[in-house]
Amino acid sequence: MRSAFPTAPVTTMDVSDNTNTHPDPFVIRECHPEEAEALLALWQAAGTSPSVTDTITDIRGSIESSATVLIAEVDQRIVGSLIATFDGWRGNMYRIAVHPDYRRRGIGRALVAEGERCLAKLGVKRITALVEEKYPWAVAFWSSVGYEIEPGIVRFFRNP
Ligand SMILES: CC(C)(COP(=O)(O)OP(=O)(O)OC[C@H]1O[C@@H](n2cnc3c(N)ncnc32)[C@H](O)[C@@H]1OP(=O)(O)O)[C@@H](O)C(=O)NCCC(=O)NCCS
Questions:
Q1: CATH architecture for the domain at 11-144
Q2: What is the mean pLDDT of residues 120-128?
Q3: Which of 25, 31, 46, 85 could form a disulfide with 14 if both were Cys (CB 3.0 to 4.6 A apart)?
């Protein structure tokens, strides 16, 4: 099932008129299935922790599901990503990533804002994000965009 969200560009930001010095505007839009390989390349360049689901087939599956897979694009280059999902009960965000050459320009913040906007349309009341606490920049980023650490929770997982 395709995502319920539009595939046209959803956000265009000209970052040249804020405190950021980079002149290139970026666009946030939904990722297309044929861009799965480019998305995987972004994650590798961004240094996200690899997982068993980092395959073209799994990424394509996510893009073609009801999940919202957002990308940030500069000059037709994929430079950022976020996966936002809603299971009918709660919202989750995964794989926030911005290419090292494009960081600290508000792209990560804009991706989260767009993800929240998409989830809000579905009536989401609670959004969680899995964050690797060993990465201080990741903790600083999520704190900066308004998320709190929930004490006493650990993540259990199994790769069946
Ligand atoms: C985390 C990440 C997505 C941030 O993307 P970004 O586009 O640079 O983030 P933004 O420019 O929107 O930053 C928003 C705010 O987050 C905080 N922040 C972002 N990067 C930070 C860093 N390296 N150190 C401290 N704070 C940081 C700042 O408060 C920043 O606001 P400011 O620039 O006005 O000070 C990016 O660094 C990244 O892809 N890292 C590697 C992948 C990763 O660790 N993902 C998170 C896994 S949970």
A1: 3-Layer(aba) Sandwich (3.40)
A2: 98
A3: 25
